[in-house]
Amino acid sequence: EIRAATRALTRSGPAPVTDVAKLCVCDLLVAQCDVNCCCDPDCNAADFSLFTTCSVPIVTGDSRLCSQKAAIYSLDVEANPPERIFKLIDQVNPSVFCIHATNYKQALSFSSPEMPTSENFDQLFKRFSSATFSAEPDSWNMNTDAQNPSDANGTYRYEYGVPIQTVDAFLRLPSPVVSSWCSDANPAGFLVNQATKCTRSVSVEKCGNIQAVSMLFYINSSILAVPKSSQMVNITVQSIVVQSLNGMRTLLNGSDVLRLPMILDELCINIVLGVSYHITYTDAGEIIEAAASFVLGAINKEALSIQQSFEISFTQVNTKPVPLSGNPGYVVGLPVRAGFRPQGYPFPIEILFAALVLNTNKYSQLTILQSTNQDCLAAQGARTPILFGYNMISGCKLRITAAMKCKPLTQTLLNLLKGQSFPEYVASFGNSQTHNVLDWVPITHLHTSEQRIYNTFQSPCQIPVSLEIEVKWTKYGSLVNPQARIVNVTALITTTTLKQLPSGRERTIPITSSVVFTDISSPAEPGYKAWPTINAKLPFDFFFPFV
Amino acid sequence: LSSVPLQMLFYVNGIYYIFYFLATLAMIVYKSQVFSYPDDFLAPDLALLFIMAILEVLRLHLAFCFLRGSKGNLTEEEAPLGLSLVITVGSVLLSVYFLVWQTYVLQADVIINAVLLFTYGLESVLKVIAIAAFV
Which residues cross the membrane (chain B) (predicted)? Predict the structure, then answer.
């Protein structure tokens, strides 16, 4: 009985109130008198005497009806104390088009919405809902027919964005969904380079049980070379880096052994902290190779969660990709591309056939000294690539003792400032090809000295103390989408005199290197079309009889 | 027996009906714009209005047949008049529908339908008298 009653109650909402005498929109406080609300049933005569005005003077139904009831509330301020007057009258609409009657129940009021019950829920959901996400990866399987169009004889291939299929499901790249916790349902898309970081909850007790921290989980299933085929590509382990508890990483020599999580000395070791997939594909959309590089770490008893990072990158077979720094103009933040002209091509004619050797090794790019160590000689050659648009300055302090000789010191400092292989040419555009020699700007080397050398005969020792690279760039192309183009690169070396020190004494001089990017684009001049001219000419024989 | 008042009434009825039809049609269009008038309420109203127009044309044609006859003279035959009376019943019912059971009954609707019903009533009385004169 009670269940039937509650079912009836939930099926329809509360009955609407239509009696104008009982309706009161200003009655907001329950069991309390609202101020200046003349229709409030909680107010008594004493409250009414304190009101100044009636906030709701009239309550009526639809005014388009010919005759309707109206409740009028007003305050009689003349009386002492003021009292409220309530009148219930019939309001008449004088227009000839007033509604005399209506046989359509919902004509003059808002319709109450259908209450959802277990019977009509699915139908209401289909009517009113929009797109929703599904949490189960199994539902992906039904859509693969639509996603992979096949040729007439049934050959399939991977296309951009299509999830990479493995034997059981899809190649998973765990990523954070909604919160930062890892979700294993994110498939890796073909040719979509992704890098994700997410948090996974771990504990030392469940060391061997959590699948997602074991190497096997990531290389277990083989990738299908093309969708829906039986040709499989095994995931090989390319390299393993072991990270200790304090963060130090070591590259392991033999990467054939599969290292599974195990407990050692109250630590759980061989926990996967990062996976980096490298997939090689052909231009026919087939995957031919898959390799994974792992970073394994260890957790102790206090650790409740670890952060895992995942990455996937795609390379086409038989190509060695060179990353562009812009297309065509340089993008701020990408490294400035530089290179060398190979020896043996000095003549201008052969410049057309020469190729610039582009080094993908980042330490042969245009680099600048990285300030890792205060002492220049202990710097160990750490260099950072120069990024377009970022002015950088770095330096160190050089301690000069009496025992130092001029020439070796000069050579050491030049190596320090310029690096092992300082390039000769810088690409003028972010996507300059190596065979267009004219697209490359030579680096101009300048030399200046801090002190003026008066006496050249006695030429004292000059040691380089600062390298300033100035990159002049301009905006090139259309006004609405200007592209950055490097026009000129100068490397200025400043030298100073090294005075012979008395033995035992030391001197410290600062060594600096800097990069400055200067915008030398001339202000844009918009081109206007010529003023329209009136091209009015009389016909040739206009004045025929007379001319 | 030539019933001149009946003839006059038929003419008046014809002219008034044209006005009634146009007015009701215009008001249905007005209602559909101003009020919420869904299609499954609008369609029956319009259909009945057109049916009423057809019935009215038929009825008046039969009535004039009675008055003029095929030869152009005023002949007096009871069959067309009787048929016309029967059709009048249908017209009265439709008029009552537009007075009471329409989706929206405006004050103007009430007025013109009342006048139409009064006209029908008067006509029916005169027709009955005319038929009774033969029988």
Answer: 9-30, 46-67, 79-104, 110-134
Identify the CA nearest to A208 among candidates A297, A292, A269.
Answer: A269
Q: Following DSSP, what letter does each residue of A186-245 receive, concatenated?
A: -BPBTT--EEEEEEEE--STTTTT-GGGSHHHHHSSPEESSTT-S-EEPEEEEEEEEE-T
B interface test, pick of A100, A103, A108 with most B CB neighbours within 10 Å:
A100
The ipTM (two decimal places) reads 0.81
User: Quick one: how far is CA A242 from the chain centroid?
Assistant: 29
| Other CB atoms within 10 A of residue A500 CB | 9
Q: How far is B25 from chain A (nearest CA, A)?
A: 14
Q: Is A316 an 8 Å CB contact of chain B? A: no
Instruction: Give the nearest chain A residue to B30 (CA atoms).
Output: A97
Report CA Rg, chain A.
41
Q: How far apart are CA A432 and CA A438, in angstroms?
A: 9
Are the C-beta atoms of residues A467 and A419 closer than 8 Å to each other? no
Please tell me the total count of domains within chain B.
1
Proportion of chain B above pLDDT 70, given as a percent: 88
Nearest CB neighbour to A96, from listed B100, B102, B108: B108
Please state whether beta strands A305-316 and A67-76 pair in parallel, antiparallel, or not at all (unpaired). Answer: unpaired
Show the domain range for B24.
2-134
- Over residues A246-250, mean pLDDT: 82
A104 touches chain B (CB under 8 A): yes
**pLDDT the model gives residue A419:** 82
Q: Which among A309, A306, A271, A311 is positioned nearest to A199, based on CA atoms?
A: A306
CB atoms within 10 A of CB A154: 8
* C-alpha A299: how far from chain center: 30
pLDDT category of residue B24 using cuts at 50, 70 and 90: very high
Strand partners, A271: A297
**pLDDT value of position A459:** 66
Contacting residues of A for B41, CB less than 8 Å apart: 104
What pLDDT is attached to residue A485? 93
> Of B74 and A173, which is predicted with more confidence?
A173
Domain definitions of chain A by residue range: 17-97, 162-316, 334-345+352-519
Greatest Cα-to-Cα distance within chain A, rounded to the nearest angstrom: 121
Please give the residue that has the higher pLDDT: either A363 or A489. Answer: A489
Bridge partners of residue A58, in order along the sequence: A72
Secondary structure of A324-342 in HEC code, one letter for each residue? CCCCCCCCCCCECCEEECC
Which of A467, A465, A468 is CA-nearest to residue A511?
A465
Does residue A111 belong to the interface with chain B, where contact is any CB pair within 8 Å? Answer: no
For chain B, say whether A109 makes contact (Cβ under 8 Å): no
Measure the CA–CA gap between A515 and A383, rounded to whole angstroms: 13
Nearest to B109 among A95, A100, A106 (CB): A100
- Partner B, chain A 34-93, Cβ-Cβ below 8 Å: 66
Of A96, A99, A106, the CB nearest to B104: A99
Q: How many A×B Cβ pairs under 8 Å?
A: 38
Q: Which residues of A touch B96 (CB under 8 A)?
A: none
